[in-house]
Amino acid sequence: MALTSGAAALPANLVLFQETGQPAICGREADAARKEWLRRAAECIEEVAIVTADAGGKVTAWNRGAERAFGYAEDEALGRPIGFIFTGEDCAAGEPAASMRQAREQGRAENGRWHMNRNGCRLFCLDVMTPLDKDGYAFVSRSQGATQAGSASAIKDEFLAVMSHELRHPLNLININAELLSRLPEVQQAASAVRAVDQIRDLVASQAKIIDDLLDISRLSTGKLSLCLRDVDLASIAAKLVDTLQEDPMVHSLHLRYQPPPAPLMVRADMVRMEQVLLNLLSNAVKFTPAGGSIDLCLYAEGGWARLDVSDTGAGIAPEYLPQIFAMYGQGDATAVRSKRGLGIGLALVRHIVELHGGRVEAASAGIGLGSRFSLWLPMVQCGDEEQHGRSAATGARLAGLHVLLVDDMEDSLIMFKTVLELEGAQVLPAASARDGLAILERERVDLIVSDIAMQDMDGYEFIRAARSRPALASLPAIAASGLGRETDVQCALDAGFSAYLTKPIAIDDLCDEIDHLLPR
């Protein structure tokens, strides 16, 4: 580059440099040339998606990088709202508009988020949006490799969310069938049948809690596991789980002995979380104890603490692995253990939950093949008037007279849930799709909507927004039901227009409680 002849005399707003032998370009001509050069350069870049949008958020330019990342040709993207590459959840949460607003107000909006390509696949990108002159935006997005920390974390969260949704569907069906069985007269008249149904529902609740932990495993390090505390008898929890395990065929070849305390061991605890802890410890003992071995569960008071010991004559733990046995994925490396590996999070959950309750947990073993003992201590509370706990008895039809629109595109869930709601006295209007649900709302009087979120053709977000667009339905109570339980999922549903959110599997009592809250009668 060389200075142009007489450059010192030129005004400050003129271009001072030019390629040797080329005429100088200045003023508006220079500005136009610069923009054209930048446009051509952006068009040629394939590693980064570069998009511009007008003031309303509609795409005005789309480079090769955007074509490569999202799969749409330029003529297919031009004129479309920039949100068309955002996920449905982000669109429901208003993320495209929020990014434009932040760019206007702060000069820059940076985010790491998932986008959707033309094939419906998700890709994690780092986005930057900035104001472009006074009438638009520049949007730069770069997809991240799965080995990078941000992308790996997002991929993990997305995988857990999808896995959670897939696991919750069969759990929800199991729970609905258990609810249905519990209301049959012939079941209510047989004590063994009532006990079996109770155990099914208890185990569904415990498994649902475990899925919650897998869904957001970061809660282990941030201390965000939620607890519903009340005074409970630790011995009654232990006795119930022992009865459940006695029905397990794997236990039939073992000697499972339970030594209850002489008096109740009252602790302030989350009952479901404590069941999760005890079930984890007992299941591990069963898993690693060979046929003919013994498992002992003992409870007693020790000072001001309730102590619980689970001892077995099984595989044992090498001394060098004892310090890490409660670490995440820390299962040791004994040959006896390698063939029975699990997810490697069970004991980490045990320690975390016990510590959240103000207690502690320890492991002891004399070595490989010599069995092990897991002990936990929880602070005891004085016996007093206990908060009433348990499922409310079927003393009447809690939903009598209510007209409920039930929307779900899974036929098995729709039929079973409809049956249970009708047993509670509701008049149920079933809809096998969101569009069927909207048609019903056009012609029928409805007191309440219960709708699934993940549906084909039109999802729950679109459905509730369409319903809310009708003035007569603007304040109609609506409950979202979904197998996804992240805070972002809940917020997306509420932002879309739902009044409340329940995570599958849904207990009918929980649903009735929510309905009582929305429709006090």
Offer a quick outline of the entry.
It contains 18 helices and 19 strands. It has 521 residues and is of the alpha/beta class. The relative contact order is 0.08.
Q: How many structural domains are formed by the residues?
A: 5
The largest sheet has its strands arranged as 4-3-7-6-5
Q: Level of helix content?
A: 40-55%
**Uncertain segments:** 1-25, 145-150, 333-343, 384-395
Nearest-angstrom radius of gyration?
30 Å
- CATH topology descriptor of the largest domain: Heat Shock Protein 90
**Measured distance between first and last alpha carbons:** 82 Å
**Average predicted confidence as pLDDT:** 79
- CATH architecture identity of the largest domain: 2-Layer Sandwich
The count of DSSP E runs of length 2 or more, i.e. the number of strands, is 19
- Quickly give the structural class: alpha/beta
So what's the CATH class of the largest domain? Alpha Beta
